[in-house]
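Progress note, project year one: complex with manganese (II) ion.
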Amino acid sequence: MGKPINSLKSPRFCGIRTFQRLPYSADVSGNDFAIMGVPFDTATSYRPGCRFGPAAIREASAILKPYNHVLDVDIFEELEGVDAGDMDIVPGYIDESFAVIERETDRLCAQGVVPVLLGGDHSITLPELRGVVKHHGPVALIHLDAHSDTGSDFFGKPYNHGTPFYWAMEEKLILPEQSTQLGIRGPLYSRSAWEYAKGKGMLVLDGWQMHTIGLTESIRRVRERVQPGTPVFLTFDIDFLDAAYAPGTGTPEVGGFTTHEALALVLGICPGLKLVGMDMVEVLPETDHGAITSFAASNIIHAFLSCLAANRRR
Ligand code: MN
Ligand code: MN
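Model obtained:
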């Protein structure tokens, strides 16, 4: 059962890095959530290197504090958590790595914790969902990203960081009528790139539309789709943020969102929902500057944990 090291006794820059200075334990039993790294970047289409994302997010997370004033909640008054280390993926081998990711996510869910997974490229969400759905059934997906990631294949192959939600939909891991993609923008290969998700009944709030309707209306449209008691999985691709706020990513897009807007969306969407997991993907420290991308990623995870804690308190 885990709480972070008290940073008023041991300074925050001391010690060996785990997420938010939580205890490291491969055994997650007795906890409410578990952090795990998924350092897999074999399925990237442009700049590789997000295998180093989990380490960078953990490094930046040392600065986090337990109390979130927006929700008036102290995460660790409500929750116990551990950092269970990284999954031993197989570099260069997608199918073998997916088997590891599914098995490990399955193990976390079987032990009753909410998995909070640090990518890695976005392909990892498909095997994560395979693991989650075994325990919870199909999920409402809340997907923040500059890209829809609903291609059926790239270079003649099915698994890529641009295809996880096509396959998740085909495998019926997602409830499209309760799911939303937010922030999609940027040039596309063809005008039909979003039609798949829309055709399946998913709501797509594209980036341009969100800038017009604003945060409050965006939050309302996401929440009104989710039925009470439906398991919800949050998948956050850091390129949802504008390239100015998250330069450390493999396929950056301009015209995006600020760090504040991302926090406000997570803190606005997630309270009251049955949260069964989250991931934070596509953090690429090699092209980051001043760790701003890693700080953003760790704070967005903190916002998710704050919602998990606030929901527990209710
Ligand atoms: Mn993505
Ligand atoms: Mn993306």
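The mean pLDDT is 97.
Residues 122, 145, 147, 149, 237 surround manganese (II) ion (ligand 1) (CB under 6 Å).
No further modelling is planned for this target in the current period.
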